[in-house]
Every structure is written in C-alpha cells, then in structure tokens.
Amino acid sequence: MSSRDIILGSVKKNLQKQEKFSSPNLDEKMFTHYDEPLSRFKTILKTIGGESKETDKQRIDSVVKETYPDAHIFCSASKLCSLSNLDLNSTEDPHELSNVEVAILDASFGVAENGTVWIDYKNLKHRVIHTIIKHLVVILPKKEIVSNLFEAYQRIPVKSKGEDGCFIAGPSKTADIEQSLVLGAHGHHSLLVLLID
Amino acid sequence: MKRHAELAKNFLKDEKKASWQNNALWFVRKKRDLAALDIKDFEGLRNLASEIKLHTLTHLDEYLEEFEKNALARGIKVHWAKDAKECNEIVYKIAKEKSVKKVIKSKSMLSEEIHLNHFLEEKGLEVVETDLGERIVQFKKERPSHIVLPAIHLKKEEVGELFHEKLGTPEGTSDPTFLAHAARAHLREKFLEGEMGVSGVNYGVAETGEIVVCTNEGNADLTMGLPKIHVALMGIEKVIPKFKHLSVFTTLLARSATGQPSTVFASHIASAKTGGEMHIILVDNDRSKFLGDERLFEALKCIRCGACMNTCPVYRHSGGHSYNYIIPGPIGSVLAPFRNYKDYYDMAFACSLCASCSNVCPVKIPLDRLLFHHRQSVVKKGVISGLEKSIFSLVTSAMLNPVRWRMFNKVAVFFLKITPSPVINLFSMGWSKFRDVPSVDKTFSQLLKEYKGRNNE
After folding, report:
1. B194 close to B223: Cβ distance less than 8 angstroms
2. What is the ipTM of this complex?
3. Which helix (H) or strand (E) is B373 found in, with range?
4. A66, A73, B60, B78: which has the highest count of C-beta atoms within 10 A?
5. B419: pLDDT confidence band, cut at 50, 70 and 90?
6. Are the Cβ atoms of A163 and B268 closer than 8 angstroms?
7. Are A172 and B265 inside 8 Å of each other by CB?
8. pTM of the model
9. Could A150 and B247 be called an inter-chain contact, meaning their C-beta atoms sit closer than 8 Å?
10. A133 burial via Cβ count (<10 Å: 0-12, 13-18, 19+)
C-alpha cells in the first residue's frame, strides 16, 4: 500500500468517530469597511515603515530618480517606468538580479486595512524581483485600493493561474535580535508606493 | 530527562534576563491586542476561523485529495510521507537526483519536528537556515525557543559574540541593526549558492492546489524563488478548502503573532517558477491519530502564530527551552503529551490553568481545557509519584464523605498549628520555596459558622 493510501486510510478511520462540522458562510460584514480607503492605506503603510507619494503617470521616472539619486541599476517591469537598464525578461538566471538596486513593479491593487499591495507574478519572469533588490517601488492606481482582505481575495482570479502572487506590506524586516526592529532583512530595505490616478 | 520545573529553575537563575524576556513577550501580547481592536469584528473572525478549521479537519481526506488533484494539475509534484523518516528520505532523494550539495531553508516547524537538518547533514549536505533567528540558533546548535521568535532567549550581546566568532563581525559589537545587516550579507552569499530551497507552508488551498507562505524577512521568497528546486513541507492539517478562506486567516495570523497588520510577505505559490520544479510533501507523522480523539483533534486547528506563548505566564517565566518538545508553550504542551506521554507528561503541568491562551488563540483551540484533560489522563496512566498519588487518594476519600472531610480538616489544622513552619516547609514539595505556608488555626467550616453567627446577630 502506498503512503498516500495509508495516510488517507488513517484519516478516514480516525474520523469515523467524529461528528462532522458543516462549512460556515463568509460574511463580508465581518470585515472592516473604510469610507476613505486611500487615507487609511497611506496611514497604515507609514506605520509599517513604507512610504507613499501621489504623482502623475508622466512624472514616475523623475520621482524614482529623485528618490534614489545614488542608484545605478534599475529594473522596471512596469510600462509606466522607462528607467530600466536591466531587462527582467531577457535575464535568464534570477541570480543575476542580485545587484539590482531599485525594482519598479505594478501592483494590481492595494488593501486599506493592512497597507499591502498585490504583486501578480503572471507577467514577472522571475518572482524574486520583489525581494532580491535593495529598494522596491510599486505603482498603484488610487482607485484600486480595496477596504479589506475579503474584497482583496475576490480581486484575484481563481483557476486562471492568477493566484501566483504576493501581498507585500512595507519593507522587509526582522526583530529576531532582542525584538529590535530592523528594516531591510533579506529583501527590500525600503518600499515606495507611487499612487497614480 | 530533566523536567519542566527543573529546567525552569535553571532559566530563572539569571533573574535579569528572565525578567527581560517576560517583558518582551508581554509587549508583543499588548501589540496583539491593539492589532485585534483595529479590526471591526476580530472575535467574529476568530469564530469563523475555528469553524472553517473544524469543517476542514472533519472532512480532511476529501480536501487532501482535492488539494493533491489541483496541485498536480499545476505541474507541482506531490509526495506523501507517513512519518518523519519517510519525509526526510523524500527530501534527500530529490536532492540526490539533482546532485544537490547545498540546501537553503526558510522557517518550518515541521522540519524541526522531523529533524530534517540533522538527517541531511549526516548525508553530507550543507543545510543553511535563512531566517535570522533560525540561523542564530543553528549557529548555537540549539533549537528555537519560540515558534515565531526563535532566538527570544538570547540577548544582543550573546548574538554579537556569536557573530564575531562565526561571521567575523568586530568584537564587542551588539547593535541589532549592524548584526542583522551582517547576517544579510552572509546569508545573501548562501542564497546565491543554494541549489535547493526547502520551505514550510502556512496554508494549502484545496480549491486551487496552491500554497501560501507568510514571512517578514523575505528569506522564504528567496528560498522558493532562487534555486531551481523548491520543496515545500506541509503537515496534512494545513489544508483549507477555499481560496476565499485565506482572507480570514491572513487577517488573523500576523495580528495574533506579532501585532502587525500583515506579514511583510504573504506569498501565494501556485506553480513552479520559470525553468524550475516544485515539490510538496504532505506529512502525516501522527497527525491523523489526533483526528480520532474527540477532544484533542482541535489541536490541529493551530496556525502556529505563537500568541499562546506570548500570553502564557508560565512560558514567559520559564522560557521555551524548559519545554522538552520542539514546540513549547500551551500548544506544544497540548501536542506533546498526546504524541508521547512518557517523555512529555510534565508539559501538561507547566500551566496555571488561567486560560489566557484560549482567549487569544485566533482559531479558538480550547488549550486550557485540553491541558486539564491531559493531566487527568496522565494521572490515570500513573506517571505521578507514589507520594502525590497517596496524598490525592487520601484527600479524595475525605472529600467524598462530609463526616470524614470535617475530621480531616480538623486534624490538618491541628498539625499545622503545632508544627513549626520550617518543618511544614519540608513537606510542602516546593510550594513554600519562595513563600511561607500561611498560619491557620481554624477550619473553613468553623470560620463559616462564626461568620454566619456574626451576621445573624
């Protein structure tokens, strides 16, 4: 008998004595709704160590340059930023991305409740691009901010390979030494969310 | 084998450090409360999370099959391991087939449970833990003392000393930012060399066949995304039915664990990366046995947030290493004695039955009741000492009969009155180590009678 059959058999056997519980309904009303999701998003993002700037689509290149005047290697996966001097799609090996200083990515949407942005992996050849770099810039249309995670998960298409992705909340961090907060653990040291119309 | 009480005594020898740890953990508990209040209906979500888990666990075979089917459809390779040995062997086999020598790992309590690192190292592989806290305890050849804060038992000076020895940081440096960035540089090299990444799993979604991994440091994303091979270790209890159910657990997890609104990364992996391969190992290792216990099966609801540890007065004052099982604190003390009561029965007694753990648990495991249940079965199994047993049988027989009970009290009070306190302390089995037995000269019934008399006047 395969281990699969042994495990499933053991689960079934042990469950014989158990009363079965039914599946509960998810009630949207349990989740927090925000009348002004943008302002909540900005506040929470700040408290978790991220930064946001409202800007025009046309000004994205210059805002990124102004924010990181000393950076040399940029990798943009967004059509709205043309600063890329390392092309993600023509990079064969993700290890080569280790020297990237600033990555610029599009977020599909943001979540007001916890300050996260959703990065869809569908159009990213290498998933590590949001982690392996020093600074992360995310472009997020203001109207794409939902209140809570209930709404957020409805935005992600199931069964169309759309689930590959990541919620990102602020810069990577650790508090493993004496509970002292250190920004910039293994991933990005900083997160800048550019809010556009 | 040293027991919890003895190990705790050792931990408490360094009073300053013990008190620091107590405060640090209580601070995290307070942050958890603020994060919970930030949400409209945190209590409602806790109920919902519990109900989803109860439903899943009592239909676990169906959801495991659905999870497997959908993961396979995504091109993910699914393996089944009935125990620790089989899981370790599967990981090694995958590594061997691709001539892997260097393994990088992100946090997985399951890998600690099955001693994966030790197994792979014996086979000649290099295994590097990449979570900062895990790397620290790996350097120290210790086990984590907390499931979310693995190095909470160490002071920054100790980490500074360790990094001086292992990473060559300047002697006497103990600034956490400096040390964390030194670890980043060291581990970045390891990330770039790693040929296989091993991760844990926070949730496996049956509906989609994907896994979700939640971390703060970003080490899991590099572990899963850099090497060609990704192996995810998943306990069979980690499966949840629907994609939308993630909204409940993602809202609760980080708030309960550290008081953050979200972990920095909540990575949803539903397929192998470009040019890579992805494996999921579904591990039983006695989990299915819990399902057959009408009370203890609820322990499998656990989402490993660590909130029960942060709030537990016994954990905060005794430290994670005072518990012999790999998972300490209330949830560890519920899991361990069921797995092996001989080795771990003492953990059921590392508890004041205050129920604080049950009140913060995001999936509402009735931890205090399960610990009480363990105590009862442990006593039935006869692992307590003969002296304790005879005292309790004496008390029980007295309490079952009012005449005997009054008699028993009178005799006890008489002896307490005539015996000098140093002699009483000799028989108090540790109770009077830091306090005296209060002076008694009347029984409860006598006091009650007097009280009633006074009030009737």
Report:
1. yes
2. 0.97
3. helix B367-381
4. B60
5. confident
6. yes
7. yes
8. 0.93
9. yes
10. buried
